[in-house]
Design brief:
It is built from seven helices and twelve strands. It has about 280 residues and is α/β, with parallel strands linked by helices. Helix 4 runs parallel beside helix 5. A hairpin with a 4-residue loop joins strand 5 and strand 6. It folds into three domains: about 5-110, Translation factors (Elongation Factor Tu (Ef-tu), domain 3); about 125-235, Rossmann fold; about 240-280, no CATH class. It binds flavin-adenine dinucleotide. Flavin-adenine dinucleotide binds near residues 72, 96, 133 and 236.
Length: about 280
């Protein structure tokens, strides 16, 4: 993993709860982005009370787990040495408090970018559903559509002031749904998926949102026999993640062997993810 040290250049409120942080600096000139539709990186945050971010290569291997979270690379200009990341503000966590206090000039550390998704050009239709954390990815994907291709988008936001203008060369049918609590967001995500009337022809589903909702949609698509190159369903965050972490810490080590065996035996990424899902479900995670 490569690390890039930059500085906050600008912070703009796109909506009351969405902050666009532009970071830049010499190290970001030539930042390599993948061009995947879901391009994302890790952002590493300072520990409480510190301003400098410790990264393993410099610290000689920290024993403390990193304060890192995953964010979409919303815009990248390697020539100018700039990257934009849009942060959705919610209660708790490390990212939101950091963003609320961030000022131009603050240090910022991000990793190189990764991605998996390529929204197919040859699909007859595309369906995207995501909550506020997935709006940066949806915005990026819509910008990367070929002119004229059809996409239906359901954006789930806590209230109407969080709706964003999402530009696209595609033929986009954008709908907003209001849901604010984690339980409401999960229900809204599942409902949007179930209520979507699939047009004729080959399609593509994309889901980014609360982990249990994304997992349940992924299972439904897999058991309906939808080929793996025709969908992507990713957990972007987890409701009550502290409780999940507690349970994982208690039994995670016991799963390592099964996960390693599944990785070895899997014929592709999707069959590995199917098996991973079974392992975690068996363990009550
Ligand atoms: C591929 C990918 C791309 C992503 N891109 C973006 C992006 O561009 N912008 C963005 O804002 N997020 C994005 N996310 C989601 C982001 O990584 C998570 O929301 C992350 O958990 C935020 O960390 P945190 O420190 O704010 O909260 P955490 O420490 O993870 O959680 C703290 C508490 O807040 C709760 N919580 C976490 N997220 C939410 C939420 N959205 N609503 C309500 N409660 C919540 C948790 O359950 C926990 O109780 C992306 C995730 C992935 C996997």
């Amino acid at each position: 993993m490569a690390f890039y040290r930059g500085k906050v250049l600008r912070i703009v409120a796109l909506t009351p709860r969405m902050r666009r942080v532009t970071v830049g600096g010499e190290a970001l000139r030539g930042y390599i982005h993948t061009g995947h539709f879901d391009e994302h990186c890790q952002v590493w945050f300072p520990r409480p009370g510190e301003t400098r971010v410790e990264i393993p290569a410099e610290a000689g291997g920290s024993r403390q787990p990193p304060l890192a979270r995953i964010f979409t690379v919303r815009r990248c200009d390697p020539a100018a040495g700039e990257v934009d990341i849009d942060f959705f503000l919610h209660e708790g966590g490390i990212a939101s408090p950091w963003v609320r206090n961030a000022r131009p000039g603050d240090p910022f550390v991000l990793t190189d970018s990764h991605g998996h998704d390529v929204v197919p050009d040859d699909a007859d239709w595309r369906f995207f559903v995501g909550d506020s954390t997935a709006l940066p990815a949806i915005g990026l994907m819509l910008e990367r559509l070929r002119p004229g291709v059809r996409a239906t988008v359901i954006g789930i936001v806590p209230d109407e002031s969080e709706q964003q203008a999402l530009a696209s060369p595609g033929d986009v049918d954008l709908h907003w749904v209001v849901a604010s609590t984690p339980a409401e967001i999960v229900t809204a995500t599942l409902h949007a998926f179930e209520a979507f009337e699939r047009p004729a022809g080959a399609g593509y589903f994309w889901v980014g949102g609360e982990a249990t909702a994304a997992r349940s949609i992924r299972r439904a698509l897999r058991s309906a026999g939808v080929p793996s190159n025709r969908f992507s369903a990713t957990g972007y965050w987890r409701a009550n993640s502290e409780e999940w972490d507690r349970r994982y810490d208690a039994i995670g080590d016991t799963l390592d062997e099964r996960v390693a065996a599944a990785r070895k035996a899997a014929k592709d990424r999707d069959s590995f993810l199917d098996e991973l899902d079974r392992i975690y479900a068996d363990a009550g995670l």
